[in-house]
Amino acid sequence: MKTGPLAAACVLAAAVFVTHLPLLGAGYVQDDHVAIEGNAIVEAGSLSRILSASYWEGALGGDRTLYRPVTVASDRSLL
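Below the sequence we write its predicted structure tokens.
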């Protein structure tokens, strides 16, 4: 019996889903508390502010070393 690439992809996707199920109940880890929960920019959710701010700016003040607007916007969707 020969299986095609679609069957192999389905088995792989199912295996990944099943092995990641325990993570759905996991909370934040390490710096997530500061970067997400304690970030005023994430909490406000203003798209213009998210696009103009650095990753750590809302949590740690004026730190402009990282620019990650997609990450900050996705963090907003988690709250």
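The chain has one domain: 5-78.
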